[in-house]
Amino acid sequence: DPFFVSEYGGIRWTDDASGWGYGNAPKSEDEFIERYRQLTNALLQNKKMFGFCYTQLYDVEQEKNGLYTYERIPKIDMKVFREINTAKAAIED
């Protein structure tokens, strides 16, 4: 049976000391990207995975783990996420 993961990620990435995300916050943008890549690749490489959704697209009041700020400004170049997310998935073989 195929699987869909409705929530994954939640990596804290903000200059704001308040709020939270899952696990220890990355110390650099490169570390954030690598963590995102590893989480996403784990899903893409599962032959039964047909879809997934990142935990927060935008920061919200308490959580600071969005890919965009509360004001809808990208925290990291969105081309990075496109490159990671469009890798061929195991289910496509």
Task: Give a written overview of the molecule.
With 93 residues, the protein is of the alpha+beta class. Helix content is 26%, strand content 13%. It contains two helices and two strands; from the N terminus they run βαβα. It has helices spanning 29-44, 78-85, and strands at 3-8, 49-54. It has a two-stranded parallel sheet. β1, α1 and β2 (49-54) form a beta-alpha-beta unit. α1 (29-44) runs parallel beside α2 (78-85). The longest helix has 16 residues, at 29-44. The chain is elongated, with a radius of gyration of 14 Å.
What's the structural blueprint in terms of helices and strands?
Blueprint: E1 3-8, H1 29-44, E2 49-54, H2 78-85
Parallel strand pairs: 1-2
Helix pairs in contact: 1-2
Summarize the structure.
This protein has 93 residues and is an alpha+beta fold.
Defining traits:
single chain, 93 residues, alpha+beta, two-stranded parallel ribbon, 2 helices, 13% strand, elongated
